[in-house]
Amino acid sequence: TEGSAAARPTLTRTYGELPTVQGEGMVALRAWVDEIAALTRPARIHWVDGSRAENDMLLREMVDEGKLIKLNPEWRPGSYLARSHPSDVARTEARTFIASEREEDAGPTNNWAAPEEIRATITPLFAGSMKGRTMYVVPFSMGPVGGPLSHIGVQVTDSAYAVTSIGIMTRVGTDVLREIAGGAHWVKTVHSVGAPLQPGQADVAWPCNDEKYIVHFPDTLEVWSYGSGYGGNAILAKKCFALRIASVIGRDEGWLAEHMLLIRVIDPAGRAYHIAAAFPSACGKTNLAMLRPTIPGWRVETLGDDIAWLRPGEDGRLWAINPEAGFFGVAPGTGQSTNVTAVETLWGNTIFTNVALRPDGDVWWEGLTDEPPAQLTDWEGKPWTPDSGRPAAHPNSRFTVAAAQCPQIADDWDAPQGVPIDAILFGGRRATNVPLVVEATDWTHGVFMGSNISSEKTAAQEGTVGELRRDPFAMLPFCGYNMADYFGHWLKVGQQLRFDRAPRVFQVNWFRKGTDGRFLWPGFGDNSRVIDWIIRRIEGEVGAVESPIGRLPHSADLDLDGIEVSQADLDELFAVDAQLWLREADLTEEFYRTFDGRVPAPLWAELAALRYRLQRA
Ligand code: GTP
Ligand code: MN
Ligand code: MN
């Protein structure tokens, strides 16, 4: 069962047994692996079994090869530091393509490429791209293996760093192969750092290529990523599969793949509620996911910090899982005063990338402690002192850690059926205009709100609408199809929900600033006060003030016990300036017009109704 000898490259298998799992589905998987190997010509193939021993071996090898630095086990047991090439430090949106058959299916917010053309471009790049390297075959499940909302993928990669990261971020192993053998559908993902090794050529610490392509084929459910070893470009299970490809599968199957955190909130009476929240990158998802409420008696349990898959259940509620198994979080700004839960999660068994190294073999980044250590090695491996005048950790440096290590992770965080959602929050970074919290009047209004999410690229000038990056549903870089169709899909999912059981939708903004440039709201743990109001709204325990943009809290209904927020600040936090909102409405119209008539009529109706209410205000 080794396949046809003629088509196969010469392979020396040094480790990783060919899986003994049998079944019809394995034939197609093996044929595909052979096909990729024939193209990329690796020196070895390693079928990853997801075992502890295998993981330890990969980590040891990378340390021996100078690709990872083992941290001092006294401070950070089982943990490692990777330093990327200085040019390979983030997702590369400009090199990310949606190669749908028809350009209009990718829509104006994506880079489109004709599938045949881009295949003709990238196939020669992948030809021989794994020479001298090991090709790892990584079967993974997004969501618990075999769960009703779960989906399977296989990543082939020539990066051991990617393998160990996928091992933390997803469920990897032979039980996934059993699902494939039994006929489960799986998504094909191919990754090469694009740095073949000639015989005798020494490897570098972070192999990558100046030329990068992250290409999604939504019609055949494939991802091909070339040239980058970093995060979302290399862990294809995450943004590429669980958001871009999954959003397409969700469109066709009637569910939603979203850039959302997931939490359970437990009130003093012991009642549990589930909240999903979409904020753009670096706008506080991981923070809210690990919230420690400052109101006595409240608790938050973490379910997920970045991605949620949501599906209408037979009971008319919206059920959600976190398809991931780990956190790939931004390190800078994560500290005792902002996210103590994350700091505690990182006690060990963590892979850090591009943070600074302390002389004692532990790690550091801006914001971990108030005062920096006197002496560090920065993320590029250069000596650093507080006088160096540059950050010690890269601003997009990250930690990769298992979700199970979070001290407030919910016991049932990996329940296959997920949790029923009570509220959906949309947010962004808005210094002006957007109130601390506003409730949508119904699902359609909520979808309208989601379609209008934007976040300041830079601090906006006070009192005026600044230059905004529109990031609808926080999905701008992650929606695998035409965003206008995606808005329509949200409306359709709403129709599958029972009107009295659909999640209530809210817009939140922790980032509103006063004219003096200071944040008006203390944020972080005190965001529990906003959640308290949201839950009392759901329970019908408090009323609301009707405004042109939605329902606002009566200020007496916000629990502000124990914090100092002046009446003037409160007024400003909830101020709705009709003139500025009319300008926002103009921007919305401009944005909707870029979709060539594909934006659903109910959203145009929402825009017209908003203008009408604002003009009368
Ligand atoms: P990705 O993981 O890239 O998708 O982003 P994320 O949404 O998880 O962002 P993250 O939680 O890492 O964002 C952190 C940034 O938001 C830091 O700059 C925090 O200081 C800031 N932040 C989070 N919560 C609050 C808050 O309540 N108030 C204020 N002012 N800043 C906050
Ligand atoms: Mn994210
Ligand atoms: Mn995050």
From TrEMBL:
Binding annotation for Mn(2+): K239, H259, D306
PROSITE patterns per the UniProt record, alphabetical: PEPCK_GTP
Assigned keywords, A-Z: Cytoplasm, Decarboxylase, Gluconeogenesis, GTP-binding, Kinase, Lyase, Manganese, Metal-binding, Nucleotide-binding, Pyruvate, Transferase
Domain Phosphoenolpyruvate carboxykinase GTP-utilising N-terminal: 32-251
Enzyme Commission code(s) on record: 4.1.1.32
GO MF terms held by the record: GTP binding; kinase activity; manganese ion binding; phosphoenolpyruvate carboxykinase (GTP) activity
Recorded metabolic or biological pathway in which this protein acts: Carbohydrate biosynthesis; gluconeogenesis
Binding residues annotated for substrate, in chain numbering: R91, Y230, G231, G232, S281, N396, S397, R398
Note describing how the cofactor binds: Binds 1 Mn(2+) ion per subunit.
Compartment(s) of residence: Cytoplasm
GO cellular component: cytosol
GO BP term (any one): gluconeogenesis
Active site feature: C283
Region (Disordered): 372-393
Family statement drawn from the similarity comment of this UniProt entry: Belongs to the phosphoenolpyruvate carboxykinase [GTP] family.
Subunit-level organization: Monomer.
NCBIfam families: PRK04210.1 (NF003253)
Name used for this protein in its record: Phosphoenolpyruvate carboxykinase [GTP]
Protein's organism: Microbacterium trichothecenolyticum (Aureobacterium trichothecenolyticum)
Highest classification ranks of the organism: Bacteria, Bacillati, Actinomycetota, Actinomycetes, Micrococcales
